[in-house]
Amino acid sequence: MTGPHGSLNWRNAAHWGGGRHLPCIHCRRGAFCRDDHGRPCHKTCAEAVSASRAEQAAHDLTEGAA
Ligand SMILES: [Zn+2]
Questions:
Q1: 8 Å CB contact between 11 and 2
Q2: Does some domain include residue 4?
Q3: How far is the CA of 31 from the centre of ligand 1 (A)?
Q4: Cβ contacts of residue 10 below 8 Å, gap of 6+?
Q5: Does residue 54 fall inside a structural domain?
Q6: Is residue 20 part of a domain?
Q7: How far is the CA of 13 from the centre of ligand 1 (A)?
Q8: What is the mean pLDDT of the chain?
Q9: How confident is the model at residue 64 (pLDDT cuts 50, 70, 90)?
Q10: Is residue 39, in this structure, part of any structural domain at all?
Q11: pLDDT at residue 27, as a whole number
Q12: How many angstroms separate the alpha carbon of residue 32 from the centre of ligand 1?
């Protein structure tokens, strides 16, 4: 589920785990948010991961063109 600018849509109620505090899949600290797969994670952690993935994809494209 992506927003108009390719960012995650954190307004979607599916991202809120009903007030349950579960360990974030990225940093293991308690998080109320859920990612698109329903896994507990922080918004900041998810954004950092998606940013690094985009960076890696761009890097791979550059490397592949050589
Ligand atoms: Zn986290």
A1: no
A2: no
A3: 7
A4: 33, 43
A5: yes
A6: yes
A7: 19
A8: 82
A9: confident
A10: yes
A11: 96
A12: 10
